[in-house]
Design goal:
This protein is mainly α and about 525 residues long. Helices cover about 70% and strands about 0% of the residues. Helix 2 packs parallel to helix 4 and helix 8 packs antiparallel against helix 10. The radius of gyration is 22 Å and the shape is globular. It has a domain of about 240 residues: Up-down Bundle (Cytochrome C Oxidase, Chain A).
C-alpha cells in the first residue's frame, strides 16, 4: 500500500510541477490578461452575430474556417468517425444484451463470451475507448487546427494512429471476450495490448501538439486549453495505471478508481467541454457569458479533480485521510461546474430560439446541462452519508452513464452533426432522422437514468435494513432493471439512425431536397 500511495503522490506532485510550468508559461505569454474580446476569436473575422449550423435549411456548407482541408485530413476524419460510429453500434448491442441479462439471466448463456461479465466489460471498453475516445480525438483533429488557424500537421501519422487505435480496441475486445483480461474495471484490456494503444495515442497526440506549436493566433481559446491538457493527462494516467506487476490487492483497487474516475474527469470531460465551449457560441453566433470565468473553470478542474475517484473506496481498507482528501476534492468540484454552468447555460437559455432551430445545438447544450447534473450529483454522492446508501447499488451505474453518455456522448453527437457537412461539403442525406435520433436517446436515457437512480436508492436502503433479507434488496430492483433495458433499447435505436445518416453521408447520398443556402443573422432567426 505504501508503494502505491507513494507512487500516486509522487506522480501527482510531478504532474503538479508540469501544471505549474504551464501556468507560469501562460502568465508569461499574457494568456490570463484576457477580456471578453478574446471570446470572439472563434468567429469569422472576430465578429459574432451569425447563426451557424450546416444542418439547418439556411446553413452554409462551406467550411467554418478559411483553412482548406487537404484530402489526407479529410480521409483521416472520415476514417476516425466511421470507425468510432461502428464501435458505438457494437458497444450498444453488447450493452443492451448485458442489460437484459440482469433480469433474464438464462438468456444467451450457451457460451462464456455471452455471459454478463464479458458482455458488460466489452460494452464498457468499446464505448469508452472505441466511441468516446476515438470520436473525441477525431473531433480535436478538426477543431484544434480551426482554433489555431493553421492546417493539421503530420496527418499521415495521425491516420496511422487511428488505424493502430482501432487494432488495439479490436484486440482488446476479442481478448476480453475470450477471458484474457487484467481483471480491473476500466483496465480490463491486457497490458500487452495496452502497448499498442499507447503507441497509437502517441501517433494521435503528436500531430495535435505540433499543430499547436505552429498556431497563428496569439491567444489560446479555452477549448484548446481543455484539449491540450487532456493530451497530457490521459497518457500519464494510462501509463501509470497499466504498469504490469506493480499494483495488487488493495493497492490495485486504489489505482483502479484513481484511474477510472480520472479517465472521465481528465480525459473525457476535456473532450466534451472543449467541444461545447466552441460549438455552443459558434452555432448561436454569440460569445460565452464570461470568458474569464471559463478559464477559472478550466484551472479549477485541473486543481480539484485528480484525487476524486478514491471516494469509491469509502469503507474499504485504505487510509482514512486518502478517502477524506477525495471527498473534499469531490465537493470542491462544484467550483468548475458552476463556472461551466454560468457560461454555457446562460448563453443557450438566453437564446432559446437557437435550440429550436439547431439540432446539433440541441444535442450539445443538453449534454452540457447533463455535465452540470452529473458533477453535482457526483459531489453529493462522495459525501459519506449519501455514499453509505448508494455504494454497491445500481445508483452508481446510473450516475456513471449520466457523465459518460448524457454529457460526453450527446456533445459528440452534436459535434459530428455540425462538422461532417463542412468536412465533406455535403448536406445530411436524412435530416429528419437527426430529430428522431435526439428524442430516442433523450427519452431512452431519461427512462434509463430515472429507473437506476430510484431503484438503486431503494436497493441501498434495503441492504442497510438488517431486518430484511438480502435477496429482497435484489428482487425489488427487477422492475427498475426492466425499465433500464427499455431505455437502453431506445438509445440503441437512436444510435442505429445516427449510423445510417453518417454512413449514407460518407457514401455520397444526397437528401431529397438539398439546400446550401447562405447563413443568416442570429437576430433574424431569434425574431421568428
Amino acid at each position: 500500500m505504501n508503494l502505491t500511495i507513494g507512487t500516486l503522490l509522487a506522480f501527482s506532485f510531478a504532474v503538479s510541477l508540469i501544471a505549474l510550468a504551464a501556468l507560469i508559461w501562460a502568465i508569461s505569454r499574457k494568456q490570463f490578461q484576457v477580456t471578453q474580446k478574446d471570446a470572439m476569436s472563434i468567429f469569422d473575422n472576430g465578429k459574432p452575430g451569425t447563426f451557424d449550423d450546416p444542418s439547418h435549411p439556411s446553413g452554409r456548407l462551406r467550411e467554418a474556417t478559411t483553412l482548406p482541408l487537404s484530402p489526407a485530413v479529410r480521409r483521416l476524419l472520415v476514417l476516425g468517425f466511421s470507425t468510432a460510429v461502428f464501435w458505438l453500434l457494437l458497444g450498444s448491442v453488447f450493452g443492451v444484451i448485458a442489460s437484459y441479462k440482469m433480469h433474464l439471466p438464462d438468456w444467451l448463456n450457451q457460451a462464456a463470451p455471452l455471459t454478463f461479465g464479458r458482455m458488460r466489460t466489452m460494452h464498457l471498453n468499446l464505448v469508452i475507448y472505441g466511441w468516446l475516445s476515438l470520436g473525441g480525438i477525431t473531433t480535436a483533429m478538426w477543431l484544434v487546427p480551426t482554433l489555431f488557424k493553421t492546417p493539421l500537421r503530420k496527418a499521415g501519422m495521425a491516420t496511422l494512429g487511428v488505424v493502430l487505435w482501432n487494432l488495439g480496441v479490436a484486440g482488446g475486445v476479442i481478448a476480453i471476450g475470450s477471458g484474457w483480461t487484467d481483471g480491473m474495471e476500466w483496465l480490463e484490456i491486457p497490458w500487452q495490448l495496452d502497448i499498442l494503444l499507447a503507441v497509437a495515442g502517441a501517433c494521435l497526440a503528436i500531430p495535435l501538439v505540433v499543430t499547436a506549436a505552429h498556431r497563428q493566433v496569439e491567444h489560446i481559446y479555452v477549448s484548446a486549453w481543455y484539449y491540450m491538457a487532456g493530451l497530457v493527462w490521459f497518457p500519464s494516467l494510462f501509463f501509470l495505471a497499466n504498469l504490469p506487476s506493480t499494483h495488487s490487492g488493495v493497492q490495485a483497487a486504489t489505482v483502479n478508481w484513481w484511474f477510472a474516475h480520472n479517465v472521465l474527469g481528465l480525459w473525457l470531460t476535456p473532450l466534451g467541454l472543449g467541444a461545447a465551449y466552441y460549438f455552443i457560441p459558434k452555432i448561436i453566433g454569440k460569445p460565452i457569458f464570461s470568458y474569464r470565468l471559463s478559464l477559472l473553470g478550466f484551472w479549477a478542474l485541473a486543481l480539484f479533480y485528480s484525487q476524486v475517484g478514491i471516494h469509491h473506496l469509502i469503507g474499504g481498507p485504505v487510509p482514512t485521510w486518502l478517502v477524506t482528501l477525495s471527498v473534499v476534492q469531490s465537493v470542491m468540484m462544484v467550483v468548475p461546474v458552476l463556472a461551466v454552468a454560468i457560461n454555457q447555460h446562460v448563453l443557450w437559455l438566453g437564446n432559446f430560439w437557437a435550440m429550436r432551430e439547431s439540432l446539433p445545438l440541441r444535442f450539445i447544450a443538453t449534454g452540457a446541462l447533463m455535465y452540470t447534473f452529473a458533477s453535482l450529483q457526483g459531489s453529493m454522492e462522495a459525501v459519506r452519508a449519501v455514499n453509505t446508501v448508494t455504494h454497491f447499488t445500481h445508483y452508481t451505474v446510473g450516475h456513471a452513464h449520466l457523465g459518460a453518455y448524457a454529457f460526453v456522448a450527446l456533445v459528440l453527437f452534436g459535434a459530428v452533426y455540425y462538422m461532417m457537412p463542412r468536412i465533406l461539403n455535403r448536406p445530411w442525406p436524412f435530416p429528419k432522422l437527426i430529430s428522431v435520433h435526439f428524442w430516442l436517446v433523450f427519452i431512452g436515457f431519461a427512462i434509463y437514468f430515472i429507473a437506476l437512480t430510484l431503484g438503486g436508492w431503494l436497493q441501498g436502503l434495503a441492504m442497510m435494513d438488517a431486518s430484511r433479507d438480502w435477496l429482497e434488496s435484489m428482487e425489488l430492483t427487477i422492475p427498475y432493471l426492466q425499465a433500464r433495458s427499455v431505455g437502453g433499447t431506445l438509445m440503441t435505436l437512436g444510435h442505429l439512425l445516427f449510423a445510417v445518416n453518417v454512413y449514407a453521408l460518407f457514401a455520397g447520398k444526397q437528401p431529397a431536397t438539398a439546400n446550401a443556402g447562405n447563413a443568416i443573422p442570429a437576430t433574424d432567426l431569434g425574431a421568428r
